[in-house]
Amino acid sequence: MRALLALLALGVLLTAHELAHLLAARIFGTRAVVFSFGVGPPLFGFRALGQRWAIGAIPFGGWLRLEGENPHDAARASGVPFAALSVGRRFAVFAAGPVGSWAVAVLLLAGLFAAGTHHPMGAVIGGVEPGSRAALAGFRPGDRVLSIDGDEVQAWSEMVEALSHAGGPASVAVARGAGTHTLEVTPELGADGRARIGLRQLYGYERLPVGRALWQAVLHTGVVIPKILTEAGALLAQPWGGSARNHTAGALVWSAAEAAGTGADALIRSLAALSLALGLFYLLPLPALDGGRMLLTLWEAAMGRPVDGRVQTLLQTVSLVAGVAAVAWLAYGEVRQVLSVTLGR
Fold first, then answer.
1. What is the pLDDT of residue 245?
2. How far apart are the C-alpha atoms of 62 and 58, rounded to whole Å?
3. With a cut of 70, which residues of the chain have pLDDT below it?
């Protein structure tokens, strides 16, 4: 059930992506021949806002066809044909989808931050595992890490990074009450090369004003996007590396499925990350995706003429083959992961 809900959420995010394309086109006076909520044969349709809308048989995602987008379509456009738009406006319509996916992520996070959520409190210790190296070294909840081996530390990630590269016993200065203490600890490196000493970061609950929540959401997407790109690179290099639900093509969908059972906070964060991942995916330079269309539009702007139709057909074929190969590569990794978990290998 959780996986089904996650797939439905993915469908909503895909629909929002397509609606962003439609909104940009309508701003420039171009209408859609049809916008479909869902895919497959239309169950029924209706006209509203000067265009046709349809409900697809499969309630997943959505799609649209703009008037004048197909130069061979003889139907008369009721608005400005898409092909008649300037190069800059067509580029904006193609870019609107990824921008819309990013905007959805920002709105989800801003709503979460405004409603109230737990957030990390910098390099402040929230808990110490009994019997751990940190406990033996004398760390206490509430300690704020100031420096490691003389290097100032402000963020928790900086502390972990410094301990991971300590190469032996590390001298950690902490603020405790009104005083400062220096503790010695020897980190243990995990399989991922990150230090483990038995500390947990302190989290605090806070509701942000709307303006600050919106800005914090924008900043948070700047943290999440590089992580998505790093994971995507690792996935393409070795689609079967790591754990079954952290390093596979369905990692973010799995994350949303699991988050659905843990609370609204985790679910909203997962959906925001999924929306960002969709936006990045559509920016891939493949002719069938927004990124490829944007590149072709830039070529037209630079050369003063559109790319030759035969070249576009060739590019479409190459991108199709590349897409099928990528799907097969990732599917192989998914199947291998599932089998390894099922068989306990």
1. 45
2. 10
3. 1-6, 70-78, 234-263, 309, 312, 316, 323-324, 326-345
Residue 125 belongs to domain spanning = 119-206
Domain end marker among 161, 176, 206: 206
Q: How far is the C-alpha of 216 from the C-alpha of 201, rounded, in Å? A: 20
pLDDT in tens, 253-307: 555 555 555 567 777 888 898 899 889 989 988 877 888 889 888 888 888 777 7
Do 188 and 230 fall within a single domain? no
State both tokens at 53.
């809308």
Structural contact between residues 16 and 99, judged by C-beta atoms closer than 8 angstroms: no
Per-residue model confidence (pLDDT) at position 341? 47
Structure tokens belonging to residue 141: 């909840």
Clarify whether residues 111 and 192 are in a common domain: no
Contact 36, 63 (CB under 8 A): yes
Contacts of 101 (CB under 8 A, 6+ apart): 13, 16, 17, 20, 275, 276, 278, 279, 282
Q: Quick check: is 4 in a domain?
A: no
3-state helix, strand, coil in the chain (%, to 5): 50, 25, 25
**Catalytic status, residue 18:** yes
CATH code for the domain of 133: 2.30.42.10
DSSP β-bridge partners for residue 330: none
Is residue 267 included in any domain, yes or no?
yes
Give the pLDDT of residue 1: 55
Catalytic position from the list 18, 69, 231, 300: 18
Distance CA(69)–CA(294), nearest Å, equals 14
177, 206, 235 — which closes off a domain?
206
> Do residue 213 and residue 200 come from a single domain?
no
Report CA torsion sign: 235, 241, 245, 248: positive
In a domain, 299, yes or no: yes
How many domains are contained in the chain? 2
